Amino acid sequence: MNIRIEQEKHEHEHLSPYASFSDMSQGRDVYEEPCSMRTIYQRDRDRILHCKAFRRLKHKTQVFLAPTGDHYRTRLTHTLEVAQIARSISRALRLNEDLTEAIALGHDLGHTPFGHAGERTLNSICPLGFSHFEQSVRVVEFLEKDGQGLNLTKEVRDGILNHRTSGNPSTLEGKVVRLSDKIAYINHDIDDAIRAHIFSEDAIPKQYTDVLGNTTKSRLNTLINDIINNSYDKNDICMSQEVGNAMTELRQFMFGSLYKNPTAKSEEVKANKLISELYEYYMDNPFALPDNYRKFIDDRKEPLERVVCDYIAGMSDQYSVAVFEEIYVPKSWKV
Predict the structure, then answer these.
(1) 232, 259, 286 - which closes a domain
(2) 166 lies in the same domain as 284
(3) Which residues does residue 302 pair with via DSSP β-bridges, in sequence order?
(4) Does residue 143 share a domain with residue 111?
(5) Would you say 95 and 173 are in contact if contact means Cβ atoms under 8 Å apart?
(6) For the chain, what is the radius of gyration of the CA atoms?
């Protein structure tokens, strides 16, 4: 029995006509024989889950740099929350959960150490520019497996590239992830901000909580149900104007109260300095790059600036600090 074929048949029988069917994928850049057990999107999900970049997310900043508490979100826990929300929406809308999950698990693979602070630093000093969503695609197309990449489907890569606010994914599953990313970080960042005593639940303007709810649970319920109710049996992923506007305005509130809050961002100046110094060091000393990255320059003719960004962006917070200390912090003399 070919289980994959049975699963593909099940998709056509049970999913929405607007779903992305596994046997109608645009495929991979390099052809591979189909698996007898898993659909093409299930294989993509598994490849992302088992890749090195995914594991490194557990030590990368979400909002709070190097928090001392165990319960603050990391880039990995954010990714898992996005995947859970996106799967819930896709299941209710009868979309392809496997494609949705693959996009969600891969959407932040290119994030730098120290979150968006690190991203802004690399973008400002690298003449080629830097963005985490483009880097996430570069990770899966090139960097993983020492330059071979993961050979993912076009639909997954499109969803990863277009998960940003200004993105326009080509599949409904990608559109679900794009909204789920915002729903996840707005709500879990509120939870973390309250835990850190940055602000209280009562500080959130009433015009937003009256629409969305005054707890994380109620806000998630409102936002997820609004998308489902407004998108069911439609070839689009929509929100009602009232709920959509409230979410957008709550996001703006978060920028003023948390994302630019001096307490939450107090260590960013140090993180920016650290990443800038590492970038300049490796630009001046490319021989100090690991062998696999030097091969990208020597054998694949990749620009030095891009490869230095690749190496730094791949670091965890902890590893970047350790590398910086190894290069710049004097060691005690031992006889």
Answers:
(1) 259
(2) no
(3) none
(4) yes
(5) yes
(6) 21
Q: Are residues 249 and 308 in the same domain?
A: no
Counting the structural domains of the chain, the total is 2
Domain presence at residue 239: yes
Q: What is the pLDDT of residues 275-290, one digit of tens each?
A: 999 999 999 999 999 9
Which sign does the torsion angle of CA 99, 101, 102, 103 carry? Answer: positive
What's at 5, amino acid-wise? I
Residues facing 74 on adjacent strands? 61
CA atoms of 292 and 145, how far apart (whole Å): 10
264 Cβ neighbours under 8 A, 6+ residues apart: 63, 64, 193, 196, 198, 258
Rounded to two decimals, the pTM is 0.96
Count Cβ atoms within 10 A of the Cβ of residue 87 and give its class: 0-12 exposed, 13-18 middle, 19 or more buried: buried
Is position 142 within any domain?
Answer: yes
pLDDT in tens, 84-132: 999 999 999 999 999 999 999 999 999 999 999 999 999 999 999 999 9
Q: What is the span of the domain harbouring residue 308?
A: 268-328
DSSP-assigned letters across all residues of 31-98: --PPPSSS-HHHHHHHHHHTSHHHHHGGGSBSSSSS-SSTTS-BHHHHHHHHHHHHHHHHHHTT--HH
Residue with tokens 């645009």: 26
Which one-letter DSSP state was computed for residue 303?
A: -
What is the residue whose two structure tokens read 């909002």? 63
Whose CA is closest to 137, among 114, 163, 119?
163
State the burial class of residue 45 (Cβ atoms within 10 Å of its Cβ: 0-12, 13-18, 19+): buried
Q: How many CB atoms lie within 10 A of CB 112?
A: 28
Asked whether residue 335 is assigned to any structural domain, the reply reads no
Is 18 found in the same domain as 138?
yes
Q: Could you give the CA distance from residue 317 to residue 268 in angstroms, rounded to a whole number?
A: 12
Claim to verify: residue 80 and residue 195 sit in the same structural domain: yes
Whether 82 is in a domain gets the answer yes
Claim to verify: residue 272 and residue 203 sit in the same structural domain:
no
> Are residues 285 and 245 part of one domain?
no
